[in-house]
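Handoff note, outgoing to incoming analyst
You'll be picking up this chain. Sequence as last confirmed:
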Amino acid sequence: MDTQQSNNDFSITNYLESSITAWHSIQALKSLFINRGFIELNEEKSWKLLPGKSYFVIRNHRSMAAFTVGKKSLPSYKIIATHTDSPHLRIKTDSFTTDSTHKNTLKKVRTSVYGGAILNTWLDRPLASAGVVYIKDKKTNKPKQLLFDSEKPIGIIPNLPIHLNREINKKGEVKPQQQLQFIFDIQGTLEEYIAKKLKIQKDLILSIELELYLPNKPQLTNSDKPLLFSPRIDNQIHCITTAKALINSAHNLTETTQVAIFFDSEETGSLSMGGAKSSFIEHLLERISISQTQSRENQLRARAKSLILSADVAHAWNSNYPEKFDPSYKCVLNEGPVIKIDENNRYATTPETEALLRLLATKNGIPLQKFIIHSDLPCGSTVGPMLSSQSSIPCIDIGVPIWAMHSICETAGMSDVKNIQSLFEGFYTDSEL
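Most recent structure output, in case you need it:
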């Protein structure tokens, strides 16, 4: 495969580049779905859904669900669930100061840590800033949302030289309050900079939420099975592959309703309006059922026949740290998507759902790997267990393996990305599953 010319790879890398925050991710997905004929819904309005038609709905500007209604009056659901947020550093906007030691030319703000970021990977990188700004709309006298992106690096979080910290390579602890202050170079105050960039009046700004990001384009190695280097692979890679799988499957009208749901706040516990612990999936499935005039009993029957794929990245084997992995479960880049299992239910996969996925993968010629955490280490989790327990729908935890999960730059294998999208398409369209 020519990685530099493949339209499939190009669209994935374009998406990774544009989805610099969860806010921007939702806008990119919205544009993608609209361009493919999906109809936007509003939670405040009545839904009139037709079999074979495709729809999407956005909640809280940072989460989304898209679906194609099945042709059967008592449909089951095939659901792929992923998340739009990634670990990052968020700007404490009210901490803005000027640095008097530089004759007030440089500015400084403190940052807070969102999720479980690997902090030292954020040091000594030229960083840009992006997020959302709410302004007062003069016409409606209500808040209006604007997306913000500095587009180019505006500052850096500088390290100490090794001469002043001889223990830096032995004790690499980073203290966020003091050592993760962002030093940047803009004209005027932060509000003045934002207003100028957005071409608005500064006094119209009501609220600001900004985060830092690495403005590097995703890069691919030049080989038959290329590696992908990019920020935010966790978990934007599954957002775009899920979206593309749903779009590619929409023309294949099946009895089941095909659903893709993109949650917010997974990296911080999912307890938000658009997180997996919210009412989002419950309300979505109920409203789809109501549009089919289903009784309560039939709604529950439909769920009993349904299945969820929880799509999130997995830990790839890293030969630099062999002691951190169970040698029986080495998940290698470009060797296939990973089924994730945990005896303490940190993942939702069961023996039955694993068997179902293996049958599907075999039918589609897709290799699979299995991950179980080293017994001496705690295991992370996904949206899978909470969704399965809340919805009473069986679930499988699956994902592409990556290096350096939660680093500012992560690594995946493009063969795995291609295979998981094919697996998602097979999941949506397989009439026997």
